[in-house]
Amino acid sequence: MASKEPTIVGQMMFATLAMQFNLQQDHPTIREEVRNEILKWMEADPGIVRSNMGGWHSKPTHKGPLGKLTKLIAKEYAPVYGKAMGWELNKRKFLSEGGAWANVNPPGGSNNTHVHGNCVLSAVYYVETYGIEQGPIVFCDPRPGAVQYHPLVGTPNYINAQNIERVPEDNELLLFPSWLPHRVALNKSDKHRISVAVNFNVGIKK
Predict the structure, then answer these.
(1) DSSP E strands: which ranges in 109-192?
(2) Residue 105 and residue 84: Cα distance in Å, rounded?
(3) For 35-157, where are the E strands, in sequence order?
(4) How many angstroms separate the CA atoms of 60 and 148, rounded?
(5) What is the model's pTM?
(6) Which of 16, 96, 131, 164 is most deeply packed, by most CB within 10 A?
């Protein structure tokens, strides 16, 4: 007599949420505004070093097109993420104390693994991308125990993955928790990869 299949009740535990939006339809001019600002900025400023390896990293700003981008993310997109997470947003708003900064990775450029401290939500807006060759963003499993020891993986999936790659496209906005370790792979293309990053906290509306 054949044994019956066991009854299985599965439950995801401690899931990590990332959200993707495309700003082209609702904000068709923002990409060109931001791109032009960054290109002018690069000519006038040598930039700073953070996680960037061989690339240009701007100082943070609340002004100009990057400031405009920060405000629209805080008003239109971050609340969607907060609602999905079940955060209390009544009489509260998303705010960026540090401002937004630009990242430009030339051929051979990359970003080391890092997190964004002292904030709850991070955003990356992609200005100029060229497929997988320009270097995907790579998210790393933040659970030490899961990375330290595990059986040999036969069928890779999102449950057993230690790293998850995302290949961005122009006008794409990506939101994810600031504590999630991530890096940017080597730019193997012959063009510049341009993006903008900004961090948010949740504060009381005044």
Answers:
(1) 110-114, 121-128, 137-140, 163-166, 172-177, 182-184
(2) 32
(3) 52-53, 56-57, 92-95, 100-105, 110-114, 121-128, 137-140
(4) 35
(5) 0.95
(6) 96
